[in-house]
Amino acid sequence: MTSTPVIEATGLTKSFPGPGKDPIRVLHDIDFTVDTGSVSVIIGPSGSGKTTMLRSLNALDIPDAGVIRIGDVSVDFAELGRPKRGPGSGRTLTRADNALLARYRLQSGMVFQSHNLFPNRTALQNVTEGPVIVQKRDAEEARTDALALLDQVGLSKQADQLPHQLSGGQQQRVGIARALAMKPTVVLFDEPTSALDPELVGDVLGVIKDLATTGTTMVIVTHEIRFAAQVASQVLFIDGGAIVERGSPDQVIAAPTSDRTKTFLKRILDPA
Ligand SMILES: Nc1ncnc2c1ncn2[C@@H]1O[C@H](COP(=O)(O)OP(=O)(O)O)[C@@H](O)[C@H]1O
Ligand SMILES: [Mg+2]
User: Fold this and answer.
1) Which strand (E) or helix (H) includes residue 11?
2) CATH number at residue 27
3) Is 49 a pocket residue for ligand 1 (Cβ < 6 Å)?
């Protein structure tokens, strides 16, 4: 059985203004797909473009070119605001462009390296904020959903606590519940455990593993290679803003073919 991928990205290209006249190209014409209910893990060296790739998927960074479809919302970034000058500049977004972007952004929920929770709201309020304020959902219904999500991430007892009363791992799990509360088509994780003390990493990875078994579509940037090997449906190794190798964990992690992938994995798995 083949089904239509839930994410299809083609020709994804992104540059940032460089120190001189020339822009620096960070993503080079990237193509990839993500299947419904799958876990895609992106690995690669620092500065290879992983964060930019995720931010492009969420349109936090607007790609210079490329078409990305998530669910039933598709954006042709080269056409968006018809950029008149160099990359990243000179776009004039129309109301229709902004409406499309707003719909597009709701397709994905983002979990960052360090939770950016509202410091003076409780865990529960952090989770209900988006559904109530952005999505205008019924407050009581949003609260019921949020409590179920907090329970799912193992924090039913912490619903009324403020972020500073929670450990880093607990805060990160509130961040995951908050992303899920918007019912996005896909949840994007950018190194969700890299800011945590080592003993807190397992809880957060455990929550992500549980989500994988419930069929949540996820794209995860992580250096946790063993975790990737356990949960990933596909692994993408990116280097220099391009996908160097892509396949199952058995292929990319256990039997990489590219020397760049081999060197990277060796360094990650045996830093000394
Ligand atoms: N807003 C920005 N302005 C200029 N350069 C950027 C910006 N964001 C990222 N870059 C550059 O793009 C490259 C890729 O960055 P990033 O996507 O953060 O890589 P990774 O997440 O793989 O470490 C790096 O060289 C980085 O310096
Ligand atoms: Mg990054």
Assistant:
1) strand 7-16
2) 3.40.50.300
3) yes
